[in-house]
Amino acid sequence: MKLTFVLAALSFAIAAPAAAKVETPAASIPVADLDLTKRLDQDKLDRRIDLSVRRMCRVDAFDAKARKLERNCRLAAKADAAPKVALAIANARAERFASLDLDIQG
């Protein structure tokens, strides 16, 4: 399973020439090796997301406009990812609960 998030093109639309076609950056983050019911694995996912967002939003300039563009991209990407991460964690917990064998004998 992969967690995919796409950020709005609002921050990249500013930097692109008007005639150029703007592609919305996206990233897929593998989560199949993680048990999202465990805090340690949730922290691993957070680190993967941070790394992916840094790579995805990297700007090759160092002026104020470029730094602002990069910061806005990171904020938008993390905001987009947050509900998807919460849903993935909730689904993992639900699957774990559903797979429990309860031996209820009175």
Describe this structure in words.
By secondary structure, the chain is mainly α. The protein contains 3 helices and 2 strands; from the N terminus they run E-H-E-H-H. It has a two-stranded antiparallel sheet with strand order 1-2. The protein starts with a strand and ends in an 8-residue tail after the last helix. The relative contact order is 0.18. About 13% of the residues have low confidence.
- Report the C-alpha radius of gyration, rounded: 18 Å
> What proportion of the residues is helical, as a percent range?
55-70%
SS strand fraction: 5-15%
Query: What letter string, H or E per element, gives the SSE order?
Result: EHEHH
Number of helices: 3
Major sheet: size, sense and barrel closure? 2 strands, antiparallel
End-to-end gap: 40 Å
What general form does the structure show? elongated
Widest β-sheet, arrangement of strands: 1-2
Mean pLDDT: 79
Which stretches of 5+ consecutive residues score pLDDT under 50?
A: 7-20
Structural class assignment: mainly alpha
Number of strands: 2
